[in-house]
Amino acid sequence: MPPAKRARPALGRRAPAPVVVHSAPLVLPVSAEPIRDGAVAVRGERVLRVGSRTDVLDSGPVAHEVRWTGMIVAGLVDARASVPSPGVTARAYVVSDLAEPCGAPGVSYVEVTSGSEEEWEEGERDAVITAIREVDRPCAVGIAANTRHPLVLEEVAVLARTFGLRLLVDLDRHSPAALDEAGVLGPLCHVACARPLDPGERKLLRLRGSAVAVCPSGPASAADVLTLLDEGNHVALGTGSPPGKESLLAMAGAIRRGARERGLRTKGLDGRLVRAATMGGARALGMNRGAGRIGTLAPGSRADFAVFDARGRYPYTALLAQPPCLATVVGGAVTQTGT
Question: HSE-up of 331 (CA within 13 Å, CB side)?
Answer without folding.
Answer: 7
